[in-house]
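Could you help me review a protein record that somebody else here produced? My question to you is simply how this chain folds and whether the tokens agree. Thanks in advance; the entry in question is below:
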Amino acid sequence: MSKQPFRFVFLIGASGSGTTLLTRLIGAQKGCVALGGNHISIARKEKSAYSIARKFKKANDRLWDRHATSEDSEAGGRKMLELIEQLLAVDNYKETSHILFKRSAPFHRGDRYRPDLSEIFRLFEDVRLIFIHRDPRASAASSHRRRFAKNLRANAVITEEQLTYLSAQLATLDPTQYMGFPYEDFCREPVLWMRRIATYCGLPEDLLEQAVRAEKIDTTRNEAWKNRLDENDRNFLETFFDERRIRQWPLLGQPHIPE
């Protein structure tokens, strides 16, 4: 573990569920640094620190590569810890109190990299886990728009698998170990939810509130997926994500705020 204490904030969700938005807003605060997946809060001109962030993501890929040997996976986890040590030794990051990292399904093309939430708690001593979820039709459409898989159905299947996988993992955790809420709820009341996130993560509430107010969250984005698809594709998603399929994810129905 690092000689300098830090809190590791891990954000996860299906593609298009707001993980990048949250990481960007939280990672911009003093004492916070975001190391990826697709958002790094370190400027490219900070070559040493930026290089560490890029290597951190690669080490995480190694940890969660479904094709990796057990030895390679373990080495990836060790490397993540080593890289954080290196970052905290850089002058501009010696006062870092919160390190953020986010992954959103389908974790690159072909869904090759899958997180094991229990490993986050095994690797890091002080963890805050945030799970944000969204209407699976919107998540599948977002993945399809970014061509994570070959076609809309393939992206819908991956979304189903990932939500089932993550829901099952969350069910094994102590309820105090994570915070979860719908993206739609966050968009409706962004200030309220940012206050709750600040409390959960141990960050200044006023600064996060200012950040989310300045963002001016667009609530219409919740339905944007319908306008991007033709009628056949919309009908497919409505049929695929029917009530029977959605019943696989009981944890996704209500917000979860740890006591």
Q: What stands out?
A: The chain is about 50% helix and 10% strand. The chain has one domain: 7-252. The first helix runs from residue 19 to 27. The domain at 7-252 is CATH 3.40.50.300 (Rossmann fold).
